[in-house]
Amino acid sequence: MTERPSPLMQRARQVSEWLRARSGSPPWTDLRGVDRRTVRRELVPALGVAMLSIPQGLAYAVIAGLPPAAGLYAGALPAVVGSLIRSSRTALVGPSNAVSLLVATSVISQLPDPLAAAATLALMVGVMQILAGVLRLDALVDFISRSVVTGYITGAATLIVVGQLPNVTGTLRSGGDILSRLGHWLSTLPLLDPIAVLIACTSVAGIVVLRWWLPKGFPALAVMAVSVVVSWAFDLDVDTIADIAHIPQALPPLALPSIAGAYRLFPVAVATMVLSLVESTSVSRTLADRSGQRLRMPWDFAGLGAANVAAALTGAYPVSGSLARSGLNYTLGARTRIAGMTAGGLVLLVPVVLGGVLDYTPVATLAAVILVVAVDLVDPVAIRSLLRSGPADRFAFLGTVLGTWFLPLDEAIYLGVAISVVLFLRRVRLLVIRELWIDRKLRLYEVEADRPAPTGVRCRAVRVLHVEGPLFFGSASELDAALTERIDDLGGRPGARGAAQAQGLDFTVGAVLRRA
Questions:
Q1: Which class for 312: exposed (0-12), middle (13-18), buried (19 or more C-beta within 10 A)?
Q2: Which of 159, 168, 289, 365 is the most buried (most CB within 10 A)?
């Protein structure tokens, strides 16, 4: 006699069947055709991504104000889960600059147990992203303009650079907006540590120079390895990772985050969810354009949510799509999800194998890695294009940049979303209304603004308006004003009528046309 499945398992099976009916077969079914040759080929990009994930994971955790091990954990099991479930075969999930800074400014400085709060935040973000995938809300990401995203990333990159200046000079950090931080840092320059400055400058120079010969990811790891050896051999009196928190030589601890007080994190969770989805979608679409792969965004959303749940269960913090690791993965030849899963598995073993060694990494070296990555985030070509574009794009970009500088980053996200929505509604409700005149032979002509229609030919009993744009409740007042003006010109005589032919007329517009 077979055992009957539990109600929870039955519900999970129903949800899985419903998802399959709405979005097709799960993405991981393409693993059925993978053979040993494919697995061997995917090992090269997996190794390269793992090499890049070590310095980036440690550096991003420092940005987030969390123990460095949390950055490694964020690039381990979440990368495996994300690569398995998401429809994009080469886009990778892990810690990112923008999300790390959002965690630092919105969570770490406000709660007594930052690591527990970060795990709870990851769980909330993951659940919301899974729901967004199940409900097929992927179209919402398209309403956030590229100008806002570029503005946020540019502003965040500036904040990251300013935030790492104390680590470069070995001085004390401070809080506040960007001007307060800069002022405090300048006041501490007489107390700078020359050894920290030397390590940071040589590390930046080493990364820049090695980029000419080594693949992306390897220069930062090579510089970090040299700094570890120098720090250990000469017993340098500088801050190291061990001074922040030791990296445990063990696998990530599995634990369910506490949801006590989670309501306090809800505004930050929504902002983090939006930023993570926008960033991940951008990465997936960039690689899809290069590879020709067709994406299924509901699965991408659900896979990113599952990766965030995995981050919460392993003591990490919210993750997002990583353009640097994803681009390296594709450049090194990855074409299946095996590479991303293998890279996550390799990073999972890093604390076990190298935990004691990484403790000797100077903080100034990590600051140098962060500075290089932050500078890479700024896209001068895109910024120049935005500033040369229309006033709406300039306003969205500059408004979001200033928001990241002077507002909490979760509020800056909401500001950017609000700007996108306002610009969208402004464009959607914009009607182009042109008047046409009709002659006695029933021929229509457009009335030019600088030259009125010929007199004596025009039929004055009929006014014809050509309306272009969506006719819905948001544009009803503009349509009403235009019709009222023309009817008043006719003296409001009985028999004046308004008519329109358009798709999607709603009740509000219908009422306006009936009144006309």
A1: buried
A2: 365
Kindly give, in sequence order, each residue whose CB lies less than 8 Å from that of residue 494, ignoring residues fewer than 6 positions away: none
Instruction: List, as own/partner pairs, every contact residues 441-450 make where C-beta atoms lie below 8 angstroms and the sequence separation is at least 24, other chains included.
Output: none
Contact 102, 85 (CB under 8 A): no
CA atoms within 13 A on the CB side of 488: 6
Decide: 92 and 101 in contact? Cβ < 8 Å.
no
Residue 171 — very low, low, confident or very high, per pLDDT cuts 50/70/90? confident
What tens digit of pLDDT does each residue of 224-283 get? 999 999 888 888 888 889 888 899 999 998 888 888 777 888 989 999 998 999 889 888
Asked if residue 452 has pLDDT above 70, the reply is: no
CA–CA gap between residue 290 and residue 286 (Å, rounded): 7
- Buried/exposed 205-230: b ≥16 CB within 10 Å, e otherwise: ebbeebeeeeebbbbbbbbbbebbee
Amino acid letter at 32? R
Per-residue tokens: 338 = 């095996």
Cross-strand partners of 458:
439
Report residue 475 as tokens: 């544009």
pLDDT at 121: 94
| The two three-digit tokens of residue 86, written as one number | 């998401």
Q: Of the spans 76-85, 133-142, 204-213, which averages the highest pLDDT? A: 76-85
Tokens of 2: 């077979």
Distance CA 348, CA 80 (A): 10
Tokens of 174: 């401070």
Distance CA 230, CA 222 (A): 12
Identify the top-confidence range among 26-35, 159-168, 173-182. 159-168
- Contact yes or no for 376/76 (Cβ under 8 A): no
